[in-house]
C-alpha cells in the first residue's frame, strides 16, 4: 500500500546509504489515516446574525493524565437566529489553533429553543503541556440547523501561553464577531498529510530490527488543494532533506503523481544515524514541486524542527519552523516510538 521506503544514514561527518528496508505496508496498516476537516473554522456558516451575549467557562490542565480541559458552563443573551419563531438551538465548539485540523474540534450538545443554554460539559484534549502552551484556544458558539446551515453566534480566542493556569474558576467572557485574520483556514498553497516517528537508539531491546542509532521515520501520505499551474492539473512530487545536510545522500523524493491537485503519495522515508540531541539542531524539509521537462516549479513546503534559528550553535535562516511545525516536531520528540499524525499547511520557504 505504500512506496518502498528509503533509508538514509544521517550523520554530518559520515554518510552511508543503507539497504532498502522494503515495503512498510504491514507497519503502516496499524496507523489510521488522518481524519477531520481541513476547511476554515467557519465552514458551513450561512448565518448573518450579529454576535452578542456572554459565555461562561473555565480552563484546566490535568498534569497526571496530560489532558487539557475546557469546562463549558453556560451562555446568556445569545442572538436569535429564527426571528419569526424567536428561537436559537446553540452549541459550543472549540479548536486548538493554529493546527485545528490535527487536534480536531470538540463540541457540546445542542440546547434547543433557548438563548440562555446551560451545558456543564467538559471538552477534553490529550496534549502535552509544552505543546499546548504554543496554541490558542478558539471557542465559538453556533446555532445548529438540521440541514447543516449552521449560524455563527460569536467567539472568543485565548492565547494559552499567557493564560493564568492557577485560575480554575468559571468566568464570564463576552462573545465577539469572528476574527478571520486569526483563523483564516488552510494556506492557499495546500495542506500536507503526514506522520512522523522517532526511534531512539537501543529503544527496541533485543528486537532484531533494533537500530544501532536513532531513526526518524517520515510517512508522506497526501497533499490537498495544490496550486493548479496548467489546465490539465499539476504533476507533483515531494522532495525531502534533513538540514543542514543538503548532499545527494540526504536527498530523497517521491514518485510523480500526474494531473492531480490532490495527489496521494503514501511514501515512507527513514533516516538513521540520529542521536536524541540531533533532534534539537536538525530540520526535516519537505517541499512539493510541479514536474516539467525543463524545470521544476516550487509549490510549497514545510520545515519540521524547533525553529530556534540556530543549528549546532550556528545561525541559519532555514531553522524557521512555524508554531504549528514546531508543535508537531516537539510532539514527536516527547513520544518516542509512536507515530504522530498531522495536517500542515504548505508555505513559501
3D structure, described in words:
Pfam families: C2. Its main location: membrane. Residues 51-173, 188-319 form the C2 domain. The protein is mainly β. It folds into 2 domains: 39-182, C2 domain (Immunoglobulin-like); 190-346, Immunoglobulin-like, CATH 2.60.40. It contains 4 helices and 19 strands. The chain is globular.
What is the overall shape?
Answer: globular
Could you name the CATH class of the largest domain?
Answer: Mainly Beta
Q: For the CA atoms, what is the radius of gyration?
A: 23 Å
Q: Order of strands side by side in the largest beta sheet?
A: 1-14-11-10-19
Helix % is: under 10%
Mean pLDDT: 80
The end-to-end distance, rounded to whole angstroms, is 31 Å
Strand content: 35-45%
CATH superfamily of the largest domain: C2 domain
How many beta-strand runs?
19
Number of separate structural domains = 2
* H/E element order: EHEEEHEEHEEEEEEEEEEEEHE
Q: Catalogue the unreliable spans.
A: 1-46, 180-187
CATH topology descriptor of the largest domain: Immunoglobulin-like
Largest sheet: 5 strands, mixed
Q: Find the structural class using helix and strand composition.
A: mainly beta
Tell me what the CATH architecture of the largest domain is: Sandwich
Q: Helix tally?
A: 4
